[in-house]
């Protein structure tokens, strides 16, 4: 709907040039133009087989005004005409008339008439017959809606005198003539568009030696104060010389212009004018909304980076420590459902940890041999628990129940850790106020375009956000790919809930509401397999987005609570609501207005503004990548990401909101894995005799 209104608004308010500039030069060939036209008068009738023309009688003047109506200058011109009781013909631009239909009525009430000057002011000699027909018919609709009348008089934009008519211009006159139009040129050019001064305009508008003429003037397209002043002098002077004033068709003996139209045409025209009015109000409102959105987005980006840099400096300042080193052993839970492509790499990376770990792989009813692959590795301190498929939350809860240690790390079955990751991930637990730790998830498969876009998103989006949430103490999500928890905290909140599709977000919000601090440990890195196709990415992000909204709704009461829960509710949920839900719904306006600006405004200015915003984003991306110590080479893809990838993410949010509003429950979307995480492993750990492998069966 917004796109349609913008199109209507753009057509109605597209910039109109001055008739004397930008004229189509055409082929400049005149061989098809009969002498009756080139040697004839300014009124050209091409409705018949052979075009004919007519001259104005001696001492007969037709005052004509192009490019209006204009709310500033048209009323002033009409006032001069009324004072001197002189009629004129106003060749109006349909897009301007649609914005100011009241001025058309004023023109007719003043005794003047209205002609057609096309709808968007194109050069008709360079237009197709179809374009000519559309330009004229749309303008007729406006006249019908505003006046209940039509016009058969046409003044082509950029036209000149009869002796300048070339083959291209004649073709356009014939096309218009086929629709019943008579072309009215001019043979006296005031050149008021040059603003040469009142004296010059009066002089230019006076025919030589008492000849008749059609005078070209303008009531729009710029400052027309000289035209108004010159008109007030010109009319008395011409009257003193014996001139009479008449409309072009009356002067050459044609039927009167502006005849009544049918009720249907009047109704259709009224609808068009109404749409233009509605589009104007809506687009003006959207423009202000766009300004607000732009300011919020840029302000958030700058603020987030400032806070993220502060977080980085705080964690890297000399002497920073969470407290005494945490050396307690850790239980690592790996929920796995059909993860045969990556499960071996995942488990090997965990066993290679420099921190003491036990690895619990919970096979959630896999049908692809996931459990058998793990068993076949014969790795130390690895347990496999099989259960009937119950979903990821059930698998995690099974792992928690069988964990032997107080500190628990949760990792997805498509993720690998560096040897030092677990040790770094649990160090914040030296602070007794910390209940959970979010690690630094990175995209492992960066070979394709889509994966590289996700890599950019992870670095300058997710991980920057987590730094800020850490500082503000309102972390909404510990990622399922890499997170650490105190066992007693998990038990306090009732374990991992299956109420939502974003179990990691739901769990984190519950922990924050319980008064525990959730922090981000940037040095604890994990590499996870990102979706490799658009379909897989859509399903993953759709689930994430919908699950996040479910979690926000579930924990909505935190906004009204006091203490840590209230701080999380107002800061964390408020931020998610504004920047993860509301702004993505409005953000497509930026791209719609980009197209609007390129089509209907100054394309250079539009591109400069868009490039400036992109420059800010690029600078932010450079800072974010520096914080993560990631190579900058991939950032050449950022502009394309903003054009293509970002639109997909907006569509995901919009679809999620529609789904949530409709009360539809979304099912779990399992992604197809392709593997290849082995490249991120260090040297594989030595194998152990099979008797050290403990296999538990459950369900």
TrEMBL record:
EC numbers for this chain: 2.4.-.-
One of the record's GO molecular function terms: glycosyltransferase activity
Keywords: Glycosyltransferase, Membrane, Transferase, Transmembrane, Transmembrane helix
Keyword Glycosyltransferase: yes
Enzyme class: transferase
InterPro entries linked to this entry: Glyco_hydro/deAcase_b/a-brl, NODB_dom, Nucleotide-diphossugar_trans
Residue span(s) of domain NodB homology: 59-246
Ranges that cross the membrane: 264-282, 288-309, 576-601, 607-627, 648-668
Record flagged with keyword Chaperone: no
Pfam family, one: Polysacc_deac_1
PANTHER family attached to this UniProt entry: POLY-BETA-1,6-N-ACETYL-D-GLUCOSAMINE SYNTHASE
Family listed: Belongs to the glycosyltransferase 2 family.
Stated name of the protein: Glycosyltransferase
Source organism of the structure: Actinomycetospora lemnae
């Amino acid at each position: 709907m917004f796109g349609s209104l913008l199109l209507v608004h753009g057509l109605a308010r597209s910039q109109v040039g001055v008739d004397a500039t930008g004229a189509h030069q055409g082929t400049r060939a005149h061989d098809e133009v009969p002498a009756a036209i080139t040697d004839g008068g300014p009124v050209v009738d091409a409705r018949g087989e052979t075009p004919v023309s007519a001259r104005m009688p001696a001492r007969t003047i037709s005052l004509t005004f192009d490019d209006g109506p204009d709310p500033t200058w048209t009323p002033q011109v009409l006032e001069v005409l009324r004072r001197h009781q002189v009629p004129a013909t106003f060749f109006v631009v349909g897009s301007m008339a649609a914005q100011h239909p009241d001025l058309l009525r004023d023109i007719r009430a003043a005794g003047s008439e209205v002609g057609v000057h096309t709808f968007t002011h194109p050069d008709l000699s360079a237009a197709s017959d179809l374009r000519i027909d559309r330009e004229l018919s749309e303008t007729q609709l406006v006249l019908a809606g505003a006046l209940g009348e039509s016009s058969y008089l046409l003044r082509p934009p950029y036209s000149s005198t009869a002796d300048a008519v070339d083959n291209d211009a004649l073709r356009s006159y014939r096309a218009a003539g086929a629709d019943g139009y008579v072309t009215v040129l001019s043979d006296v050019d005031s050149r008021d568009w040059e603003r040469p001064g009142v004296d010059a305009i009066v002089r230019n508008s006076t025919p030589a030696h008492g000849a008749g003429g059609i005078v070209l003037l303008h009531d729009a397209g710029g400052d027309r104060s000289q035209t108004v002043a010159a008109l007030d002098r010109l009319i008395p002077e011409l009257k003193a010389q014996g001139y009479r004033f008449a409309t072009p068709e009356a002067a050459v003996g044609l039927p009167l212009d502006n005849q009544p139209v049918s009720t249907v045409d009047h109704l259709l025209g009224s609808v068009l004018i109404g749409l233009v009015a509605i589009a104007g109000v809506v687009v003006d409102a959207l423009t202000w909304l766009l300004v607000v959105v732009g300011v919020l987005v840029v302000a958030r980006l700058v603020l987030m980076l400032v806070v993220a840099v502060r977080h980085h400096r705080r964690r890297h300042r000399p002497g920073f420590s969470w407290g005494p080193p945490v050396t307690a052993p850790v239980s690592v839970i790996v929920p796995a459902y059909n993860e045969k492509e990556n499960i071996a790499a995942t488990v090997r990376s965990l066993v290679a940890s420099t921190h003491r770990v036990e690895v619990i792989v919970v096979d959630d009813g896999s049908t692809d041999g996931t459990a058998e692959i793990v068993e076949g590795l014969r790795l130390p301190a690895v347990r496999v628990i099989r259960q009937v498929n119950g979903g990821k939350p059930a698998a995690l809860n099974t792992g928690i129940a069988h964990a032997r240690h107080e500190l628990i790390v949760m990792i997805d079955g498509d993720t690998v850790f560096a040897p030092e990751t677990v040790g770094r991930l649990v160090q914040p637990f030296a602070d007794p106020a910390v209940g959970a730790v979010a690690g630094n998830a990175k995209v492992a498969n960066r070979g394709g375009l889509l994966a590289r876009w996700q890599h950019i998103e992870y670095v300058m989006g997710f991980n920057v956000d987590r730094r800020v949430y850490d500082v503000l103490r309102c972390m909404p999500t510990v990622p399922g790919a890499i997170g650490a928890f105190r066992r007693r905290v998990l038990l306090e909140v009732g374990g991992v809930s299956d109420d939502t599709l974003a179990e990691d977000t739901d769990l984190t919000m519950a922990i924050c509401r319980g008064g525990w601090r959730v922090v981000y440990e940037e040095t604890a890195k994990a590499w996870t397999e990102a979706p490799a196709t658009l379909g897989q990415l859509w399903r993953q992000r759709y689930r994430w987005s919908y699950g996040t909204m479910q979690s926000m709704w579930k924990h909505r009461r935190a906004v009204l609570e006091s203490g840590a829960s209230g701080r999380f509710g107002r800061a964390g949920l408020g931020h998610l609501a504004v920047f993860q839900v509301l702004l993505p719904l409005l953000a497509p306006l930026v791209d719609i207005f980009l197209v609007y600006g390129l089509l209907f405004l100054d394309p250079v200015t539009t591109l400069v503004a868009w490039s400036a915003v992109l420059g800010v984003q690029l600078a932010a991306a450079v800072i974010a990548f520096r914080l993560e110590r990631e190579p900058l080479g991939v950032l050449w893809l950022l502009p394309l990401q903003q054009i293509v990838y970002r639109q997909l993410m907006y569509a995901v949010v919009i679809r999620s909101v529609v789904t949530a509003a409709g009360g539809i429950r979304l099912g779990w979307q399992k992604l197809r894995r392709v593997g290849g995480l082995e490249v991120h492993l260090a040297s594989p750990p030595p194998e152990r005799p099979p008797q050290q492998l403990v296999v538990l069966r459950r369900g």
